[in-house]
């Protein structure tokens, strides 16, 4: 579970600390920095899976503009603290990453704007007490050989983190545990046009950020975990009561077509299903069907970010869905962004999950409102109305 995230000089985020609960809501005006915070989390996750420049390109079409334009700093710094369990033992990890930044020169973007200045991974738990598992200083690396409590020294290019280059070996079990945790964070900004795509992605189990492989992911679920698919159908019936089952056709290796069927076997392709219904289906998958089940080998992103999930969906449908989420975060943490006052109202019973992002003089600030003060105001206004009136800060 992610306990703390800190970032500075990333887009509008300068010295911002985020302590997420199990389920979290980010609110704020347009351009306040809600998405920037999600992108910073996503960027850090991607650096555990791919080179820095590729990670930046996945976050923005202009990766050279990731540094804060007002700060003038030549580095981006990110830290993550988390608690993970392995073999019934709890381990606390602290990961720090400092990146050098080459800014746009003469109006032309540089080809490789990022490099690793330093990174470190420490662990506490079991036989370890604030022990360095990995340390990288300007390409000079030392890795703890966990079985023998000795360090192996090597060198690494600055184009990717050493965490990304780490091999899955028994000698680095805890470091790889953290790498898998960080690298599997999921970010989603679901696009109805992408959700209707029919290109095949064989055996994929993880949804793409825009939802472009939804048909293929659900086809895999249909083949491997039919009970989970039925559970998913039952959840989506709240939006589409006529839905009896989801079926598929795969006429060639390159395409998968998904259909909604009613009890009379009438079939409706995804182009005859509303945008909101498809978004709700994808969200149900992320919140329910991709969670771990006893005996089911399904992916379980430990942290899932979903931008404005209420777009095109009747907000009342989210209340029974959210009641099925474990608020402790034990089954995975969730971060939502929203402007919708009725969606915001869903969090009036968990005010500690609310985070307000606001734009200051060239950078964003993150505020967690005082639950006691907000509770008093809820006697006069709903939570969404408080946000509308600017009373949450």
Radius of gyration: 22 Å
Average pLDDT, rounded to a whole number, is 91
Q: Which spans have pLDDT < 50 for at least 5 consecutive residues? A: 294-299
State the helical fraction: 25-40%
* Largest sheet, spatial ordering of strands: 2-1-4-5-6-7-8-9
Question: Mind summarizing the main beta sheet?
Answer: 8 strands, antiparallel
Rounded to the nearest angstrom, the distance between the terminal CA atoms is: 27 Å
SSE pattern: EEEHHEEEEEEHHEHHHEEEHEHEHEEHH
Structure classification: alpha+beta
Roughly what fraction of the amino acids lie in strands?
A: 25-35%
E-strand count: 17
Figure out the total of helices. Answer: 12
| 3D shape | globular
Describe the structure.
With 393 residues, this protein is α+β, with helices and mostly antiparallel strands. The protein has a domain at 190-300. The chain contains twelve helices and 17 strands. Strands 2-1-4-5-6-7-8-9 form an eight-stranded antiparallel β-sheet. It has a six-stranded mixed β-sheet with strand order 10-14-15-3-16-17, covered by helices on one side. The chain has a three-stranded antiparallel β-sheet with strand order 11-12-13, covered by helices on one side. The protein is globular. Residues 294-299 have low confidence and may be disordered.
Write the layout of secondary structure elements.
Layout: E1 2-8, E2 16-18, E3 23-27, H1 34-47, H2 52-59, E4 75-86, E5 89-101, E6 114-125, E7 128-137, E8 140-145, E9 150-155, H3 162-165, H4 173-183, E10 186-188, H5 192-195, H6 214-224, H7 226-236, E11 245-252, E12 255-261, E13 267-269, H8 275-289, E14 303-307, H9 318-322, E15 333-337, H10 341-345, E16 354-359, E17 364-367, H11 371-377, H12 383-388
């Amino acid at each position: 579970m992610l306990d703390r995230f800190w970032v500075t000089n990333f887009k509008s985020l300068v010295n911002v600390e985020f302590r997420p609960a199990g389920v979290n809501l980010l609110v704020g005006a347009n351009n306040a920095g809600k998405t920037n915070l999600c992108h910073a989390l996503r960027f850090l996750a991607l650096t555990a899976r791919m080179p820095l420049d590729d990670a930046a390109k996945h976050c923005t079409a202009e990766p050279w503009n990731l540094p804060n334009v007002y700060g003038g700093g030549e580095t981006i710094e990110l830290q993550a603290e988390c608690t993970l369990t392995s073999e019934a033992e709890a381990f606390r990890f602290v990961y720090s990453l400092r990146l050098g930044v080459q800014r746009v020169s003469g109006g032309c973007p540089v080809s490789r704007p990022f490099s690793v200045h330093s990174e470190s991974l420490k662990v506490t738990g079991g036989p370890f007490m604030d022990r360095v598992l990995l340390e990288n200083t300007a390409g000079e690396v030392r890795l703890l050989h966990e079985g023998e409590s000795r360090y192996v020294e090597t060198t690494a290019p600055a184009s990717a983190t050493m965490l990304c280059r780490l091999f899955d070996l028994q000698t680095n079990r805890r470091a790889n545990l953290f790498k898998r945790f960080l690298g599997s964070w999921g970010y989603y900004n679901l696009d109805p046009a992408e959700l209707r795509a029919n290109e095949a992605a064989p055996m994929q189990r993880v949804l793409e950020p825009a939802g472009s492989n939804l048909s293929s992911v659900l086809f895999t679920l249909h083949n491997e975990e039919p009970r989970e698919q039925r559970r998913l159908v039952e959840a989506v019936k709240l939006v589409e009561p006529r839905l009896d089952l989801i079926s598929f056709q795969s006429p060639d290796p390159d395409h998968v077509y998904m259909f909604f069927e009613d009890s009379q076997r009438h079939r409706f392709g995804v182009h005859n299903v509303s945008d909101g219904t498809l978004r709700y289906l994808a969200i149900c998958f992320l919140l329910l069907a991709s969670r771990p089940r006893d005996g089911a080998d399904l992916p379980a992103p430990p942290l899932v970010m979903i931008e404005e999930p209420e777009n095109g969906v009747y907000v009342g449908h989210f209340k029974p869905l959210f009641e099925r989420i474990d608020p402790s975060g034990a089954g995975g943490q969730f971060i939502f962004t929203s402007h919708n006052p009725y969606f915001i109202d869903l969090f009036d019973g968990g005010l500690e999950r609310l985070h307000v992002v606001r734009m200051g003089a060239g950078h964003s600030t993150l505020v967690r409102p005082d639950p006691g003060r907000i509770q008093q105001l809820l006697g006069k206004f709903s939570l969404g109305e408080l946000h509308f009136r600017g009373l949450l800060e």
